[in-house]
Amino acid sequence: MRITPEIVGKELGVGATLVRNLMERGELKIGKVIKRSGTSNSYIIYPKALYEETGIKIDYEPAGEIKDLKEEVQNRGVTQTWVVNQMNYLDKSLNMTNQKMSAILNGRRELAGDEFIAVCKVLNMDIQNFADKEVS
User: Is the pTM of this model over 0.90?
Assistant: First the structure.
């Protein structure tokens, strides 16, 4: 879905012209203004920027918290050992252990990128939910 100044204006309870003017002046940082000579400007509105600037969610869901991983494991009714075994089955080079997983689940160790991908696959979690989180 293309997000337009009209859509943003409706959500904010203001007119599209005000949204355009605020974007042009840099007072509403929700995307880019493409200035065209001789024609009207074009406006590209980014869902993430719109959410961060206004709290409006259109085609965007804020990133989940990696700290929720422990809760995800518990909610799915699987054991830590099962997760470790499945991760190692997917990628033997991970060398994941119960000790490492315990440290991760309790916030004492960060997930490496390859571990993160494996745990998302094992738990059938959408990697995009964590797209804005830093992974070492």
Answer: no
The token pair at 48 is 């993430």
Nearest to 60 by CA among 134, 128, 135: 128
Alpha helix stretches (DSSP H) within 25-93: 47-54, 69-75, 80-90
Amino acid identity, position 22? L
Mean pLDDT on 121-131:
77
DSSP string computed for 80-110: HHHHHHHHHHH-GGG---HHHHHHHHTTSSP
Closest CA to 48 of 136, 131, 134, 135: 131
More confident residue, 135 or 93: 93
Exposure class string for 83-115: b at 16+ Cβ within 10 A, else e = bbebbbeeeeebebeeebbeebbeeeeebeeeb
Instruction: Please identify which residue in the block is written with the tokens 């094992």.
Output: 122
| CB neighbour list of residue 104: distance below 8 Å, 6 or more residues apart | 69, 110, 111, 115
Beta-carbon contacts of residue 24 (< 8 Å; ≥ 6 apart): 33, 41
Q: Which of 2, 5, 27, 28 is nearest to 15 (CA)?
A: 5
Contact 23, 8 (CB under 8 A): no
